[in-house]
Amino acid sequence: MSIEEEKKTESFAENVVAVSNDDDDFKLLTPEAREAGERALVRKLDRRLMPTAVVIYILNYIDRVAVTAARLQGLEQDLGLTAVQYESILAILYVTYCPAQIPSNMILSYISRPSLYIGACVVAWGLTSAMTGVTTNFSGIMACRVFIGLPEAAFYPGIMYLLSRWYTRKELAVRSAWFYCGLLISNAFGSLIAAGILAKMQGVLGLAAWRWLFYIEGAITMFFGFLTMWLLPDFPHNTRWLNAAERRLGQVRLAEDAGEADKDADNLTIYDGLWQALKDPKTYIFMFMSCSQLLGLSYINFFPTLTQTLGFGTTVTFLMAAPPWVFASTCCVLNAWHADKSGERFFHIASWWWVVILGYIISLATMATGGRYFSLFLMTTGYCGFALTLTWVSNAIPRPPAKRSVAMGLVNGFGNLGNMMGSYVWSPSYSPQYHQSMIVALCSLVLSTVLGFLMRWILIRENKHMDMIEKKLLEGSGRERIEEAARLEGITFEEAVKRRKGFRYLY
């Protein structure tokens, strides 16, 4: 570590939250221990935070879309639902789920123990999911769907915000993808779990199999919710299962990554973060990009139904729904790994939308079993791009954390309105071709592509502006100071300039 880098580390170390009064607090910041200490910290987070987040996400989406699996085993008939009522059951979740994400992330940036907050929300939605099994009419299941959206709103943007409080810009994409694989895996194995329950539990204790589906999945979620309170970390300055030196290192490395400490000013209120996010035009572009993207990918809530159009029975339909999501999970991780490696964002997100558009075109052109099933594989890859959307938001709206937290809640909350609209776009009246649905979804992905291009252009322009400011600093006395520093450190002028280069947006 050079003299310049040591000074830089010391300045950031002074600007983080004190975690102890012991000199050991700083032992991992020494040149000899820093690299090994950082690797060990990241491995510890990867072993504990990431598996917990993935498992919760699997349970989250299985609970949320269990109603689509139950539909194939008599849910509509037992509750006397019409086609419009079923569509309303799917859509009503987003009425609470979307707006609740904003205050939830505001709370998350304000409280000190996100592990307890997120764990409690997991228990709450597991309980609500289990209660869905006792409903006997349209009103009962609507009430459950309304209330399940409130605790679920805390999870996805909340975990993404928590990841951004621990991982650097170059580490975040692949971790976000591993986390998002929970959704993709849940679509694969959730269907298999549903197939097993629906095939074996019909009539047990006089109950319909679809009721057992909600009881079993809800109970498992509640159990893991209590574990979550112990497994998840809090923030870098107060996580209980890290020692003082690791907590100090966790703060310093994030501060170095952004060129400033990853903490809110002492006088910043919970509402200041909201106001700052609302004043930033990038927030609105991301909001509409996410909404149009999720409308284009809203087939996800109807995937078992789309697979059923291939003409097979219930169990075989669930089994056939799994491979496309396994394929998408693999693509998702590889795509995120390359995004972190290259530092590029737009094409690692938008190119998968274009693959989905190709899948829609194939489905519009043929009803042949082989062609339609191949198109399902292409359609699932769209979520490889969505997995990096909040990562891009975190990179483009990085500081202060309160602003970043609210921006992520706004983008994901508003974006899920696309899923709500999709509940009506994929109407059973369009079955089995669903041509009208696919055309709407295709056009939505074209719109999200345009908005993505606009965001990329804005970030490139802002980076160029920062380049110009730094270039001016290299003239006159500023250049002389850099030349002197390079001479003292025994490096070239170009290397000294590179080290002084500040934060840049990833686009």
Question: Can you offer a commentary on this structure?
Answer:
With 507 residues, the chain is mostly helical. It is 76% helix and 0% strand. The chain is built from 23 helices and no strands. The chain has helices spanning 3-13, 34-71, 75-79, 83-110, 114-132, 138-152, 156-164, 169-200, 209-231, 244-258, 270-279, 281-296, 303-308, 314-342, 346-365, 369-380, 382-386, 389-396, 401-415, 417-425, 435-473, 477-489, 493-500. Helix 2 (34-71) packs parallel to helix 8 and helix 2 (34-71) packs antiparallel against helix 9. The longest helix has 39 residues, at 435-473. The relative contact order is 0.13. The model is unreliable at 1-15 (pLDDT under 50).
Structural class: mainly alpha
User: How would you classify the quaternary structure?
Assistant: single chain
What's the number of helices?
Answer: 23
Strand element count = 0
Uncertain segments: 1-15
Rg estimate, integer Å: 24 Å
How would you sum up the global shape?
A: globular
H/E order of the elements? Answer: HHHHHHHHHHHHHHHHHHHHHHH
How far apart the termini lie comes to: 29 Å
Range of strand content:
under 5%
Q: Could you describe the largest sheet, including whether it forms a barrel? A: none
Q: What's the average pLDDT?
A: 83
Q: Helicity range of the residues?
A: over 70%
